[in-house]
Amino acid sequence: MMKKLFLFTLLVSSFLVISCKNNTTNSTSGELDYKANGISSIYEGKGYKFFSMDGETYTITIQNGGITGLQQGTLTVNLSKSDIYSVNAEGDTIESLGNNAKVYLIYNNELQGSIIFPTDANAGKGSVNITKSDGSTIEGIIRTDLPDTAKISKNIYGDWEGMILSGLTYLLNINDKTIKIDSDASLSGVSIPTSFFEFIGNDTYVISGNYYSGTSITLLESYSKLDLDIYDKSVRFNPKIEGGKITGYIDDSTKEEYIDTPQFSRKSQNN
Description:
The chain is mostly beta strands. Helices cover 4% and strands 45% of the residues. The chain is built from one helix and 22 strands. Strands 11, 12, 13, 14, 15, 16, 17, 18, 21 and 22 form a ten-stranded antiparallel beta sheet that branches. The protein has a seven-stranded antiparallel beta sheet with strand order 2-1-10-9-8-7-6, with no helix packed on it. Residues 1-30 have low confidence and may be disordered.
């Protein structure tokens, strides 16, 4: 109980926690005057990196209103100022995110999506969701890199195993790229970037931000067992296009879904 209370308090203080909403809400802002303002210069030179859904960490550059180096798998996206829209030059505030986030919409002949930055360029984290016309996507978190002491310890890399009352076995693999669960259930194939987790003390790692916010790993019994709580949710905005121009935004965020998993015991450890 104390663990969940602590995590709840932490997430309320996080700048990108959102209220629960229906999956693909399609709420829009109404017609507004969007311009290709590009990304504000306050985000230049901050040492941001892109922590992609593929588990890799990419170096990005924000300059002259554009951003380069966004990547997921084989898809790489470089955006110029002319691809990045907002009503306000410093990015837009959206009610569901509060005053601590700035949203920029992405739109050109091939790409649509959004980039979210923290209002305070020196603190917090942002996110990216971009979809190409062929359906391929780039999603992930933007922030500065964490110190090694705040990252998931290599001591828990390896294979873990858990079993629910019905006898169904869940296999968990933790490595330097991803945390992946496999089972015979619908949960099979869930994969979360290891880099999303941050150490908060009490042998606990937690995710805050726009993807999997609230998901946590807690180590037990001298690292021989662990609890994994997964909150599958995302924050996504896309441009509303009318007559070939942006007239508002569509909120495509997903409703929070808690995924229950068994307690895991260590099966093997990676060297």
